[in-house]
Description:
The chain is of the alpha/beta class.
Amino acid sequence: MLSTTEDATGWGGAGTHVGMLRATLSDVIAHFEGKTAAMLQRYGPGPRIHYHAGLIDDLPHPSWSATLLRQQLVAAQERSLSRAAELWDASSRLCGDVLDVGCGLGGGAIFWAQQFGARVAAVTCVPSHVDLVAGFAAQAGVASRVQPLLCNASEMPGENCFDSAVAVDSSCYLPRKRWFRRLALLLRPGGHVFIIDCFLVRPEYEGPFNQYWHTRIGTMDEYLIAARESGFRLVSVDDVSHRIVHFWTTTIALIQTESRDRELGAVEPVEVARIQASLRAHAFVREGLANNGLRYCLMSFSKSG
């Protein structure tokens, strides 16, 4: 693990991005520890709980309840993984030893284990998530196939351990060059790297995105260069930005519906400020995806044999 005085994503001496103070690992851990209860409430009850964007093609109906909106979001997240499985030929490439990088609460790891029989090392830097992932894997009947690990993904030890690595909305937290160099050692010859994430197109989206999500969004070119320098070749890119826009429309609708459902007098000023910040951030990402300031893509790379 990195020390709490190091840059959160292991970027070393790299300068801070516009509008973002340098985060530490402890900042990122605190961010996700603080999100855990909301993740469980919004995307639960599990056992497959995801914390990433999903595919939604239609606007939410104004009459939908908070419960129905949550169900739509969960279905969208599952739809995203199903799309990835189809595109990446998961039945032959995600059925062996899989490294799930930044596994969240383990939804993806359990998905690959249940659907394709994969043996998954589910890596997280959030201490409380380790037991949660183990519990959900047991609940799903795949405890023997999902091993949660508390680890910095860019420094994970081992060589020739995995057939593939998957990072869903987590590679933006990693130093791309260092991470791909580590993957080059961790993956067996012919192994694959599969990424789903948001990518920067226009620079004005960088600072606000990084500041709210405690991350470092990268461009597509940055990933391509990092992968190539570590001996990986690009296999495919699937741009699903247009199908992600209404995921954010739906999260906005959910935040607004949840706020209306609460007693106004019970909402503390700090909570009101948090809700307003969330609405602004979600609307900002939706805008970026709609006007080509951001892209949301599924990417795959293969390691030289």
